[in-house]
Amino acid sequence: MTKTLKNIYYNFEEGNYGLKVVFDLDGLYLLFDSTNFIYTDAPEFDGWRNWNKLIYKELEKDSLHVTEIKEDELTSYFVKLSNSDVFYIYQHMDLEGTWHQNFTMVSPEEDYYNEVVEYMEEEWVETVVPEFRNM
User: Fold this and answer.
1) Half-sphere exposure of residue 71, counting CA atoms within 13 Å on the CB side?
2) pTM of the model
3) Which residues lie across from 131 on neighbouring strands?
4) d(Cα 86, Cα 108) in Å, to the nearest integer?
5) Which of 16, 25, 97, 111 has the most beta carbons within 10 angstroms of its beta carbon?
6) What CA–CA distance (Å, rounded) separates 56 from 105?
7) DSSP readout, the chain?
8) How far apart are CA 69 and CA 98, in angstroms?
9) Could you report how far apart the first and last alpha carbons of the chain are, in Å?
């Protein structure tokens, strides 16, 4: 499925994990709900258009798309884009013992890009094929 990536919206909720992301694929949406990915034509998250919009210059080119999604046993997630950048979702624990998720967009120019890609390519990291849910 090759749809142009138009925007990325995200929201952090209180409590364990809590990251939610909507990848706007020009009328189709890829949702991340802190544990899995689902394609849908109508996001089920209330108010998602009012979430934080990722500022990412590559979206302005109107030719970017998702090429692969990978997961390491519910701890790390990788959304590889057609320009080789990786939307990397990871977990960390705060001082109170609460798990949080965060993300970073990693480009080939960055020092830790190879480290992230090597992790993404480990044999235990699985390719994810999101189901389609018609809402």
Assistant:
1) 11
2) 0.89
3) 38
4) 9
5) 25
6) 9
7) ------EEEEEE-SSSB-EEEEEEETTEEEEE-SS-EEEESS--STTGGGSEEP--GGGGGS---EEEEEEETTTEEEEEETTS-EEEEEEEE-TTS-EEEEEEEE-TTSTTHHHHHHHHTSTTSEEP-PEEE--
8) 26
9) 19
* Residue at 120: amino acid letter: M
Residue that the structure tokens 């689902």 belong to: 38
Per-residue pLDDT of the chain (135 residues; tens, 9 = 90+): 578 999 999 998 776 677 999 999 988 999 998 888 999 887 777 788 789 999 999 998 888 999 999 999 888 999 999 999 999 999 988 898 888 899 999 999 999 999 999 999 999 999 988 766 654
Is the CB of residue 110 less than 8 Å from the CB of residue 130?
Answer: no
